[in-house]
Amino acid sequence: MTTPVKRAFKYRFRPTAAQAAELERTFGCVRKVYNLALDARATAWQRGERVNYNATSAMLTEWKRSDAFDYLNEVSCVPLQQSLRHLQTAFTSFWDKRTSYPRFKSRKKSRASAEYTKSGFRWRDGKLTLAKMAAPLDIVWSRPLPDGVEPSTVTVSRDSAGRWFVSLLCKDPTVEPLPKRKTTIGIDAGVTHLLTLSTGEKITNPRHELRDRERLAKAQRALARKQKGSANRAKARVKVARIHARIADRRHDHLHKLSTRLVRENQTLVIEDLAVGNMVRNRKLSRAISDAAWSHFRSMLEYKADWYGRKVIRVDRWFPSSKLCSTCGALQDTMPLNMREWTCACGATHDRDINAANNILAAGLAASVCGDDVRPQRNPPSGQSSVKQKTQPVRGEVLAL
């Protein structure tokens, strides 16, 4: 019997004035404790000392006893302790070279949120009541929780558009591996078309940001004209944030539906390991690349594949999928972006994106079977450029072990 998947269910809620004030205080205290602990750890490191979570937890007790930070006693201690655990996680990721050095939280730029474990909330009869609050939250139940489950962790947040959210982390017994399928697919990400599949299907890029670009520009111009620190500037900033939230919500919804469909229909999915952070440095394409959200799509594909018993294979980012002929394996010297169709010396005519998707599929299957990386071989003995791989399967063919 498999262990149930932990899944977060996110809902909007409408706090009362008293609840909003309590949460605002909690957000401020969480941010303050995080920054104090980060400063203490950085100062200790300069002295050659190392401070861990237990030491910062003891520091929190002393801060709450001091006159300077006695206001920390006004809020629940649970989210304050959780902020220290989050800082410890951030340092662990930094030491493992997965992220950069932790940064201080800003009141204006950082996400306003607080995390409660089971000791910090009460869940009774489908109603959620947080610590230090007398009444339950007025949650908009857009979808029900799975039957018989209770949240283990609750995260409350407020976005820049002023919307309040609560995220309930539960074990979801309804998520089970799907029946196995024999289908495999290669996925080529793009800007003109969001995705091109090795089956020949092209998925249109909705360009959510482009559709609201005029509204966004108008709101940003209005914001720029407002005096800094004024109430009108605060109102204008919220208008800009709401447009950004609308764009992000539609993009998120589209990627969820698309990734779920691909995971349900295919057993193995092969994608490119794109360096999106480097690609957005191109000033001509950065806005379109950011709007496509390739990294977000890949993360959705990977965790859903893990949920439902599928497999995602990532092909090396330097693999020349666009310049390689999927018929004969010849490697073209150049392939400018404006060349959408091309003809190989062997006589095969290719659609650039479909050809790339076919090559990605073949390279991923070859790498999974042979256990090798797939990299270009520039100077083969015959004098013709090709790809170094033990086997090149044709479109739709699955390599036999």
Structure described in brief:
With 401 residues, the protein is α+β, with helices and mostly antiparallel strands. It has ten helices and 16 strands. It folds into three domains: 5-172, no CATH class; 184-314, no CATH class; 316-388, no CATH class.
For the termini, the CA-CA separation is: 29 Å
- What is the number of strand segments? 16
What is the radius of gyration computed over CA atoms, rounded to a whole number of angstroms?
26 Å
Please give the largest β-sheet: 5 strands, antiparallel
Count of separate structural domains? 3
Structural class determined from secondary elements: alpha+beta
What fraction, in percent, of the residue positions are helical? 25-40%
Write a structural description.
The protein has 401 residues and is an alpha+beta fold. The chain folds into three domains: 5-172, no CATH class; 184-314, no CATH class; 316-388, no CATH class. 40% of the residues lie in helices and 19% in strands. The chain contains ten helices and 16 strands. It has helices at residues 17-46, 53-65, 77-95, 208-211, 213-225, 231-265, 276-279, 286-292, 294-308, 352-370, and strands spanning 5-13, 112-117, 121-124, 127-130, 139-140, 153-158, 164-172, 184-189, 193-197, 202-204, 268-272, 311-315, 341-343, 349-351, 375-377, 386-388. The protein has a five-stranded antiparallel beta sheet with strand order 2-6-7-1-5. α2 (53-65) packs antiparallel against α3. The chain is globular, with a radius of gyration of 26 Å. The two termini are 29 Å apart.
